[in-house]
């Protein structure tokens, strides 16, 4: 009897101990939860903080025709409203991630028990984590800082507490909205809108059920189920999501069958800083935005280009830009081939070791090593060591290979570069901006940053000055070469081998055939100061040399400034500043500011002078140095223009002018020491003009551009027609020829 009682007492004692132990564990658990709740394991956001959180939103860049072409961001995210979520997106998310979403209040105990049973007792590691969408939202908003095993429980409890607070702060719709706007899709892409744009080039509101299932399927493993990298795995995961939708009565069996048979049909678009359309333009927009934001923030705003979700609507025409980039690749790849062949094995980048070392000295790597105390020889030795590099191999793509920094310098030095800009002179809108051949390798923008000698494209400004001063375009100037005594014997000559000793050209003929001796004599008659003032009044603000050689374009001007000057011809003497941003809105599409260019108040020249100059530049296209626009490219548009080639064939230029377009193109090398090997390859008509000719040819094929391609210049007045009504060339008379020695160069003082 005593033994029975003793045994019973022991059992009761054991049960008491177990009960007490459980009670202590429970108390410790409660204390643990409480300690987390009061912030001993790290701060937990309050309900007030949760109700005021803000997304870091990417700013978006749009073309004038509303095509998204780029983003500026720390995290690629564009929040959208619940109303923009198609029903099948919500169904896909709930079916695969949180079937009881509408039934729980942030924590799904049933799912936790299920996961715990399968994981602990059955050893099923694929049973999932049991986290609700609300818990996942908590993790999205407040990412885990430490991921070691000792913090897993703390992090889970934190997320549960935050989830409970979120459920008390937001409705279920708001939780879904916040979740879909914050969830990561990998590759620094956050939110469903950015993912839809990246993988399917469509907005969230327009994604189909299979597309929604694909994106939702990625959430389990954003890399492993990335449809671009692992299409088969992604397809299988998508179909699993579709089956879950069917199991939850969101779609029918017929729909599952139909959707599961569809291809992924990706339209992947990487909004990468270096890639995509118009990278040079986007960088220029970014620079302008940073200046604008700095000005605004001085007035008390708090804008940030990378986090404020601004929407930047630009002037760029998407299709025109696309055609311009395609044409650039087509022409520059052929020209590059001709350029390298023309030099052959004697190319300066192959033979001139001193030049390559001179170019190396300009690099940031050389300067850094020099600062560290290394000698020139030590630096060159260091730069000559091979390492794995990704090399731009012309337009056939990049290539991984072993190469030294000196090899890279030699390789990249040989590439011709370009800048191409199209502006609507009626409103200043920039329609096309090609700043170089490859933004990743050549960040330097040849439109807004580079100043180059403009060659004969400056001559129209010389002739404009002369005509506006009353000098008749039918004034004849002798083509003979003159040595100017007061200019150290400077003696400008004409290209070609034509015998011009007894020839006199009208100004129209001198301009259309780009005759140097005539341009200098027109400058002398017009006066250097007057020409420089005309250039300034036409919108060229940088300082130009006060020298007679300015007539031949020795002044260095940016492409964008030259374009601005030429807009004067389309606006009766008034230039307009090129503009690249139309408006800026906040993330709710409320307009913050609009930008419009206005014509300069003062005319640089008279309406009549403008008409005369357009007719003279039309002759350049119809019968002069730009005649291949007609003969080679078959363009019948009303076009005026001017070619340009600088000394030693360093720079090739072409400016085209139509009633609604100013198009400026430059081609050359970034290293000023190297030019084209000969004029036939490097002249403006061969190297630069085709970029306009090929582009305009493509525009002519598309009716949407008729407003640009079908327009004609106003018919010149009778006065203008009479002013130009003369023979282009006049030969010296008998007696003048009799007393002139064609073999003796005339000398005189320049009086300009």
Automatic annotation (TrEMBL):
Catalytic activity: Preferential cleavage: (Ac)2-L-Lys-D-Ala-|-D-Ala. Also transpeptidation of peptidyl-alanyl moieties that are N-acyl substituents of D-alanine; [GlcNAc-(1->4)-Mur2Ac(oyl-L-Ala-gamma-D-Glu-L-Lys-D-Ala-D-Ala)](n)-di-trans,octa-cis-undecaprenyl diphosphate + beta-D-GlcNAc-(1->4)-Mur2Ac(oyl-L-Ala-gamma-D-Glu-L-Lys-D-Ala-D-Ala)-di-trans,octa-cis-undecaprenyl diphosphate = [GlcNAc-(1->4)-Mur2Ac(oyl-L-Ala-gamma-D-Glu-L-Lys-D-Ala-D-Ala)](n+1)-di-trans,octa-cis-undecaprenyl diphosphate + di-trans,octa-cis-undecaprenyl diphosphate + H(+)
InterPro entries found in the cross-reference section: Beta-lactam/transpept-like, Glyco_trans_51, Glycosyltr_51/Transpeptidase, Lysozyme-like_dom_sf, PBP_transglycosylase, PCN-bd_Tpept
Keywords: Carboxypeptidase, Cell membrane, Cell shape, Cell wall biogenesis/degradation, Glycosyltransferase, Hydrolase, Membrane, Multifunctional enzyme, Peptidoglycan synthesis, Protease, Transferase, Transmembrane, Transmembrane helix
Domain Glycosyl transferase family: from-to ranges: 75-245
Coiled-coil region list: none
Chief place where the protein resides: membrane
A Pfam family hit: Transpeptidase
Record carries keyword Nucleotide-binding: no
Entry's localization field: Cell membrane
Pathway stated in the Swiss-Prot or TrEMBL entry: Cell wall biogenesis; peptidoglycan biosynthesis
Protein name in the entry: Penicillin-binding protein 1A
Record carries keyword Transmembrane: yes
Family: In the C-terminal section; belongs to the transpeptidase family. In the N-terminal section; belongs to the glycosyltransferase 51 family.
Sequence intervals crossing the membrane: 20-42
């Amino acid at each position: 009897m005593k033994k029975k009682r003793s045994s019973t007492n022991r059992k009761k004692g054991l049960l008491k101990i177990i009960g007490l132990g459980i009670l202590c564990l429970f108390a410790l658990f409660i204390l643990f939860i409480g300690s987390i709740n009061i912030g001993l394991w790290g701060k937990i956001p309050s309900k007030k903080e949760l109700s005021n959180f803000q997304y870091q939103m990417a700013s978006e860049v749009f073309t004038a025709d509303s095509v998204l072409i780029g983003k500026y961001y720390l995290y690629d995210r564009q929040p959208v409203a619940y109303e923009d979520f198609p029903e099948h997106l919500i169904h896909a998310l709930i079916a695969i991630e949180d079937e009881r979403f509408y039934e729980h209040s942030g924590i799904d105990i049933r799912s936790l028990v299920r996961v715990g049973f399968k994981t602990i007792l059955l050893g099923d590691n694929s049973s999932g984590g049991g986290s609700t969408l609300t818990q996942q939202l908590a993790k999205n908003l407040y990412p885990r800082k430490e991921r070691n095993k000792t913090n897993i429980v703390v992090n889970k409890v934190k997320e549960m507490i935050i989830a409970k607070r979120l459920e008390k702060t937001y409705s279920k719709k708001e939780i879904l909205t916040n979740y879909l706007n914050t969830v990561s899709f990998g590759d620094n892409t956050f939110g469903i809108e950015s993912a839809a744009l990246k993988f399917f080039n469509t907005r969230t509101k327009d994604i189909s059920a299979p597309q929604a299932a694909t994106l939702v399927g990625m959430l389990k493993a954003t890399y492993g189920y990335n449809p671009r990298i692992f299409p088969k795995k992604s397809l299988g995961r998508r179909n699993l999501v579709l089956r879950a939708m069917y199991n939850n009565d969101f779609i029918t069996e017929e729909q599952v069958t139909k959707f599961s048979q569809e291809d992924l049909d990706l339209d992947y678009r990487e909004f990468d800083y270096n890639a995509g359309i118009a990278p040079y333009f986007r960088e220029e927009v970014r620079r302008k935005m940073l200046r604008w934001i700095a000005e605004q923030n001085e007035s008390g705003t708090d804008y940030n280009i990378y986090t404020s979700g601004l929407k930047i609507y630009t002037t760029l025409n998407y299709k025109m830009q696309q055609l311009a980039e395609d044409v650039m690749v087509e022409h520059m790849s052929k020209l590059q081939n001709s350029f390298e062949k023309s030099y052959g094995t004697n190319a300066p980048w192959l033979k001139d070791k001193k030049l390559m070392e001179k170019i190396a000295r300009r690099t940031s790597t050389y300067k850094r090593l020099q600062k560290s105390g290394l000698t020139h020889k030590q630096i060159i030795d260091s730069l000559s060591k091979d390492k794995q590099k990704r090399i731009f191999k012309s337009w056939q793509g990049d290539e991984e290979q072993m190469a030294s920094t000196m090899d890279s310098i030699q390789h990249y030095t040989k590439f011709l570069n370009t800048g191409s800009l199209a502006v609507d002179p009626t409103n200043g809108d920039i329609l096309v901006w090609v700043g170089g051949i490859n933004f990743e390798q050549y960040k330097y923008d040849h439109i807004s940053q580079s100043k180059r000698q403009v060659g004969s494209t400056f001559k129209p400004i010389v002739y404009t000055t002369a005509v506006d001063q009353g000098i008749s375009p039918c004034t004849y100037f002798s083509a003979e070469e003159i040595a100017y005594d007061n200019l150290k014997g400077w003696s400008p000559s004409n290209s070609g081998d034509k015998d011009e000793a007894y020839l006199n050209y009208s100004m129209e003929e001198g301009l259309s055939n780009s005759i140097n001796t005539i341009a200098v004599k027109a400058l002398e008659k017009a006066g250097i100061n007057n020409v420089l003032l005309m250039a300034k009044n036409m919108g060229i603000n940088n300082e130009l040399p006060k020298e007679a050689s300015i007539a031949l374009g020795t002044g260095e001007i940016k492409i964008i400034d030259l374009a601005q000057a030429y807009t004067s011809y389309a606006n009766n003497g008034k230039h307009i500043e090129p503009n690249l941003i139309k408006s800026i809105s906040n993330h709710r599409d409320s307009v913050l500011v609009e930008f419009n260019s206005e014509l300069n108040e003062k005319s640089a020249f008279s309406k009549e002078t403008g008409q005369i100059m357009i007719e003279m530049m039309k002759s350049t296209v119809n019968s002069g140095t730009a005649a291949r626009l007609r003969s080679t490219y078959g363009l019948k548009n009303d076009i005026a223009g001017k070619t340009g080639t600088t000394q030693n064939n360093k720079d090739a230029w072409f400016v085209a002018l139509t009633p609604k377009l100013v198009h400026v193109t430059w081609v050359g090398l970034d290293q000023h020491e190297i030019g084209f090997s000969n004029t036939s390859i490097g002249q403006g008509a061969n190297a630069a003009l085709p970029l306009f000719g090929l582009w305009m040819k493509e525009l002519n094929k598309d009716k949407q551009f008729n407003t640009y391609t079908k327009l004609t210049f106003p018919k010149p007045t009778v006065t203008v027609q009479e002013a130009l009504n003369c023979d282009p060339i006049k030969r010296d008379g008998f007696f003048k020829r009799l007393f002139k020695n064609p073999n003796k160069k005339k000398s005189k003082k320049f009086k300009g």
